[in-house]
């Protein structure tokens, strides 16, 4: 099957930051890509940048909230009916809070779990049926150093949701391996995204001091790692978590 099939990728949270870099990287490699995001405005801007690929029917832009599981199911089915297959799923959409333990409400906890963790499970559950039929698939869960190291810069709810993604990665990897489907997690830290623009310069400087490589990462570096994992060459890698953090956490 290999190279003569045009792969179809679905990327959640694709309107900015890592999701955008990953979706654009996959698009540049000749894959068909569905950009999913809650923000219609940002999707419209992105669409303007990729009108050529839209006209060639290689890119679609769909506004959906990943925590609305019914709406996500409909979006996945519409992509399947449009392109006939889904080969790659990147579970990237997520929200991060910094609320201290004492102040986390049930509402915040539920919102983070629903967006970050439940969506990873339910979208993967929906997509895996098509991948099983194809006997080929790649699922990437975008986790975080927060799920490994419990930094106080992120809320307990966020850290728990990101650790949960690492466990789901292994469960799905074991369940789907015999169908030619690999499932891996990517765990970035200190990567330049729009969120980093809000960090005060002195705080950023302090953060860089904790990174052995002495700099922050670039979104494109994360996208390159994902690109390898979803390729044909990445077929012997499954159930793994890839740290991309400049050496901040070594294990």
Describe the structure.
With 251 residues, the chain is of the alpha/beta class. The chain has a single domain, classed as 3-Layer(aba) Sandwich (Rossmann fold), CATH 3.40.50.720. It has nine helices and nine strands. It has a seven-stranded parallel β-sheet with strand order 3-2-1-4-5-6-9, with helices on both faces. Strands 7-8 form a two-stranded parallel sheet. Strand 1, helix 1 and strand 2 form a beta-alpha-beta unit. It is globular.
Defining traits:
single chain, about 250 residues, alpha/beta, Rossmann fold, two-stranded parallel ribbon, 9 helices
* Structural class by helix and strand composition: alpha/beta
Q: State the strand order across the main sheet.
A: 3-2-1-4-5-6-9
Given as residue ranges, the uncertain stretches (5+ residues, pLDDT < 50) are: none
Choose one word for the global shape. globular
Order of helices and strands: EHEHHEHEHEHHEEHEHE
Q: Main sheet, how many strands, which sense, barrel?
A: 7 strands, parallel
Count of distinct structural domains: 1
Strand content: 15-25%
CATH architecture descriptor text = 3-Layer(aba) Sandwich
CATH superfamily: NAD(P)-binding Rossmann-like Domain
Query: What's the level 1 CATH class?
Result: Alpha Beta
What is the percent of helical residues?
40-55%
CATH topology: Rossmann fold
- Rg on CA atoms, Å: 17 Å
**Number of helices in the DSSP assignment:** 9
């Amino acid at each position: 099957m290999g190279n003569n099939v045009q792969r179809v990728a679905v990327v959640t949270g694709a309107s900015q930051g890592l999701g955008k870099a990953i979706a654009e990287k996959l698009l540049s490699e000749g894959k068909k890509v569905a950009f999913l995001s809650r923000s219609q405005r940002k999707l419209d801007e992105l669409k303007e940048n990729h009108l050529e690929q839209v006209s060639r029917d290689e890119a679609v832009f769909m506004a959906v909230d990943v925590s609305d599981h019914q709406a996500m199911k409909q979006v996945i089915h519409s992509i399947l009916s449009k392109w006939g297959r889904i080969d790659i799923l990147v579970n990237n959409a997520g929200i991060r809070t910094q609320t201290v333990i004492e102040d986390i409400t049930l509402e915040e906890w539920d919102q983070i779990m629903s967006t970050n963790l439940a969506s990873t499970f339910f979208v993967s559950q929906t997509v895996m049926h098509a991948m099983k039929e194809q006997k080929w698939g790649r699922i990437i869960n975008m986790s975080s150093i927060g799920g490994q190291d419990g930094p106080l810069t992120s809320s307990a709810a966020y850290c728990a949701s990101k650790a949960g993604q690492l466990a789901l990665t292994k469960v799905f990897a074991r369940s789907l391996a015999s169908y030619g489907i690999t499932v891996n997690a990517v765990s970035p830290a200190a990567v330049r995204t729009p969120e980093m623009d809000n960090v005060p310069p002195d705080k950023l400087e302090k953060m860089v001091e904790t990174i052995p490589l002495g700099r922050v990462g670039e979104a494109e570096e994360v996208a390159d790692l994902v690109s390898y994992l979803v390729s044909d060459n990445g077929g012997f890698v499954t159930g793994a978590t890839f740290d991309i953090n400049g050496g901040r956490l070594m294990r």
